[in-house]
Amino acid sequence: MAQAFSPTCALMKAAGYDYMSLACIKKNEEALKFWNEQGFRVEEETVSTDGYEVFRMARDI
User: Fold this and answer.
1) E strand or H helix at 59, and its extent?
2) What is the 3-state secondary structure (H, E, C) of 12-57?
3) Which of 16, 25, 45, 57 could be joined to 40 by an S-S link, Cβ 3.0–4.6 Å?
4) In the prediction, which pLDDT does 9 show?
5) pTM of structure
């Protein structure tokens, strides 16, 4: 499933964006694996506004 996110990256790049970020719940190992495969890397550990422990992840486009 690697690079399943490529079409979105291409659209965002064409619109002038140069990076993307997201939050992934720390306990969701399947989602963390997916986002890592899409090129996202953990930038920090934090707590979301609704109380979940999350990784803030980002990648260049």
Assistant:
1) strand 53-60
2) HHHCCCCEEEEEEECCCHHHHHHHHHCCCEEEEEEECCCCCEEEEE
3) 57
4) 85
5) 0.82
Residues contacting residue 19 through CB under 8 Å, at least 6 positions apart? 58, 59, 60, 61
Q: Each residue of 27-57: pLDDT tens digit?
A: 999 999 999 999 999 999 999 889 999 999 9
What integer pLDDT is reported at residue 57 of this predicted model?
97
